[in-house]
Amino acid sequence: MPRPTARTIKAATAVSALASLVALAGPAEAASARPPLPSRTDTAFQNECLTAHNAYRARHGAPNLTTDQALVAYAKQRADQITRYDGLEGTRSQPASRQYGQNVHWYRSFTPDRTASCTAAVKSWYDGGRTYDFAHPGFSTRTGSFTQVVWKGTTKVGCARAAGQGPSAYETYVVCAYKAPGNVTGRYRENVLPQR
């Protein structure tokens, strides 16, 4: 029988420690011990959000947005607040800052680790504008996300995504923050333009 080396002893010790943890936690607890994903705010995600917004804004004669890092940080904070305090249940009761506009998209999947894209989030906000009445401009809860996406006076955006295992499914929040904020009473006619 060969004599054990320091390398084989370390490997055996690591396997033994892992087996002990699994045995202590039990199989169900070990499988569910995965923490929620951190908020995603990386460059590729920001570019995806920016591209989606600007494509829809162009349809309504609104200038392109640019990414603002202060808004990215704020969106990350909001995504973390929503998942921490509201829970992963599709609710959004935490109030937003009046300094920025905000859109929130909630997505639920029964496929583990499947998260919402920013493209899908912006599309859902934009699709809310199907019932917007350009002849009688103004705010409604049904179209408020749409009007923020195409708001002409908005120049900057920052987005974040937070995801994790909810009570019955894998859930994602996409949060985008806007400056200057849209949905300002009395300013809809000049800021929410019909498609060209």
UniProtKB/TrEMBL annotation:
Keyword list, A-Z: Signal
Top-level division of the source organism's lineage: Bacteria
Signal peptide bounds: 1-25
Domain SCP: 44-186
Name assigned to this protein: SCP domain-containing protein
